[in-house]
Amino acid sequence: xxxxSVSQLRALLFDMEKSLGLVELSPNERDVLYAINExxxxxxxxxxxxxxxxxxxxxxxxxxxxxxxLKSLVQRGLxxxxxxxxxxxxxxxxxxxx
Length: 98
Description:
The protein is mostly helical.
């Protein structure tokens, strides 16, 4: 793989993020949102905070920044605390990107 291929992939990703309205999110918020989507399981598809935090996309984010990103995603209505679960479980909302 070369830099041209990577730049083409990045441009494609940017177009996809733009069409989903994700460009308004910070890079950390996007990475946390992607990590939630990747580690979600069960019915409803819930993600444990520990699993989100350990995902490669979120693992390098400083702890305080990670929690701010989660809070912001909840405030924006893109994710919510999972119903009928203990604290630290999140689900994508209907408003969130699919």
